[in-house]
């Protein structure tokens, strides 16, 4: 009777009851497990066991972990602008020189030097009619005004050649006549393509270098030419120290 009453009361409270029968006495005992109160009208099959509450410490730790970490960007290292090895004035295309000579920068120096050599050997500006004269049975022509004096001619050549190399060319092919610079009235040219040349250093000091230039002909019409060229450092710029007519 007591067991029946206990079971009835437990069921009314919504408790889960375990009944243990003791065979040797024929008695039974009941143990009540934690009661779970059901909301009105909701069957036990739809009940969800509530998740255990987290401590304040754990909540704070989780919040710190889940929050988006702040990032800090280190200031970019300041980079000093490098000085170009080959300088050409952009607006005018004026040659500025070579400050660091190597097998790469030697090529644009040679290309510029060849242009200047060809220009003076052609008498300067093609459209300028500087005039001609006869001397000792030969026809000479005056140079165009931009290179028409020994000072102008020398300054023009010394943008790529040393003073010694420039004077060697001037002394061999140019004369002063009636206060003007002149040369034999003849045309010439070269089929060597200096822009396709390569350079190999043979010797070097801080102020002097020697390179062997390998230069192909236009259309590879002939075997390449190999020409040894000397260079010198003059006032911070590298210049060709071989007479132009021995190179081009």
TrEMBL record:
Keywords per UniProt: Signal
Low complexity composition bias: residue spans: 48-85
Source superkingdom: Bacteria
InterPro entries from the UniProt entry: Endopep_inhib, TA_system-associated_sf
Keyword Transferase: no
Annotated segments matching region Disordered: 39-85
Pfam families: Endopep_inhib (PF16800)
Signal peptide: 1-30
Name listed for the protein in its UniProt record: DL-endopeptidase inhibitor IseA family protein
Organism in which the protein naturally occurs: Paenibacillus wenxiniae
Taxonomic path: Bacteria, Bacillati, Bacillota, Bacilli, Bacillales
């Amino acid at each position: 009777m007591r067991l029946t009453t206990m079971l009835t009361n437990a069921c009314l409270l919504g408790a889960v009851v375990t009944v243990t029968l003791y065979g040797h006495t024929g008695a039974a005992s009941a143990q009540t497990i934690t009661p779970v109160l059901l909301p009105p009208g909701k069957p036990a099959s739809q009940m969800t066991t509530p998740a255990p509450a987290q401590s304040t410490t754990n909540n704070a730790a989780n919040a710190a972990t889940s929050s988006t970490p702040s990032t800090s960007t280190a200031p970019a290292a300041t980079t000093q602008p490098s000085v170009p090895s080959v300088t050409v004035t952009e607006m005018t295309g004026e040659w500025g020189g070579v400050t660091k000579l190597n097998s790469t920068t030697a090529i644009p120096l040679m290309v510029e030097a060849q242009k200047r050599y060809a220009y003076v050997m052609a008498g300067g500006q093609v459209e300028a009619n500087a005039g001609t004269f006869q001397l000792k049975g030969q026809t000479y022509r005056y140079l165009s005004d931009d290179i028409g004096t020994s000072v102008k001619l020398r300054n023009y050549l010394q943008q790529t050649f040393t003073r010694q190399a420039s004077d060697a060319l001037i002394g061999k092919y140019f004369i002063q006549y009636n206060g003007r610079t002149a040369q034999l009235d003849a045309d010439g040219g070269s089929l060597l393509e200096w822009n396709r040349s390569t350079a190999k250093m043979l010797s070097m000091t801080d102020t002097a270098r020697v390179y062997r230039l390998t230069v192909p002909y236009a259309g590879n019409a002939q075997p390449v030419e190999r020409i040894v060229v000397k260079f010198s450092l003059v006032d911070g710029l590298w210049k060709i120290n071989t007479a132009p007519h021995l190179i081009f």
